[in-house]
Amino acid sequence: PTKAKLASFDEAAAAWNPQTDLEKRIASHRQWVERQVKEGNPIPVDKKQEPGDLQPGPIGNHNFPGHCYAGMIAPLSGLSVKGAIFHQGYNNAFEGSVGVEMYRDIFPEMIRAWRVAFNNPEMPFGILSLCTDGYPQTRDDYCEKMFNAGIEIRAAQYQTFLDFHNAGDRNVGFVSTYDLRRRWYHPQLKIPAGERIARWALATQYGFDSQVQWKPPMLVSMEKGDGTLLLKLDTDVSDPQDGVIEGFAIAGEDRKFHPANVAYAEKGKDNRGRIQYDYKQLILTSPMVPTPTQFRYAWGRNPLANLQATGNKDLPFATQRSDDWMMEEVPLGVLGEEVSLPLSGGDRNKIIQALRRQDTARRLKEAEKVIQTN
User: Fold this and answer.
1) Residue 125 — φ and ψ, nearest 5°?
2) Which domain holds residue 9?
3) Which of 149, 218, 274, 366 pairs with 169 at a CA distance of 20 to 30 A?
């Protein structure tokens, strides 16, 4: 899909003829003037002159590949730059899986290109995840709010960080911003977002690694059990408010995600017979998902999610998932065996309706349990 998408840009650029475009605009202007005269309408002074400029066409579109680089980075190439802090992604969230896949493919290449431009193959690059947008996700509309390409852009940003990190590159950093909730799509809580990425810079670039922590809790492994998923992390985690851990969703082979109940794994008992818990291990379950195979976390554009590293460190667990399912094929089978991309408005509505039915089914089951309990 990425190659096809890039090829479509190249084809549009190759097919563009500025002279033909100018002739069409002149003809259109003359028709408009003729119509105004016929209807007795005055021609404004600024509308009397025919077009005479040759326009760049597709390559003038700031969303065209290479446009922003050519206009904003290339003119600065060769300069000495200490590093970059990057917060972006909103305009990439409008084309569903096609746009997401291209973002996943191109984002790491963009980082490498910036490093080449500034003659520093190890140039520090800090990623601030795509921020929130829209109304907050709740338990009532949980599944419906999981259908949004912006979430996948955020996950792609974290995966890009992981790929560099796992390859041994310690000069790419990442911090989440999804918990700095506001409806608007720019982070209105800018100071805490800035402080998070500043801690990465202080720890990795300015020698404060022993005093400052910045790295988010990271998944070590996932194990499937009898009706459970066991997640093992590299550090203790909890809800900073000491409440119920929110934000995980699990699904089986039908790809029907539901919010998961989260419990710490037991690791034994102390000498007084009290159960001891491993705060690095989380057990995910849901009565709606008898055989879970995959999980997602913070999977909402404005997600219901609260997991952080324990100890008031302000280090949220990042938006991520274990599956590789296309958003247009979750849940499975709504659009049949073949999904046509990009989605039509009708197909998009079918998916949303299916997700709403999932939410309704879960809420009814939860209500039945309350009635039976009382």
Assistant:
1) -140, 110
2) 1-65
3) 149
